[in-house]
Amino acid sequence: MLNTHAISIAGVMLFTMAGCASGPATLQQGPDAEVTKEGLIKVDNSQLDLSYARPDVNWHQYSKLYFKPTQVTNDHPADYRAPKVDKRTEGMNATYDLPQTSLDKMAQQFSVTVTEVFNSEQPFELVNEPGPNTLMVETAVTDIRLSAPVENSRRSYNSMGKTYTQNSGSMVLLAVVKDGQTGEVLAKAADKGVGFDQWRQNTKVFNWSDVKTVYRRWVTDFKNALMTAAAEQKD
Question: Is the pLDDT of residue 10 over 70?
Answer without folding.
Answer: no
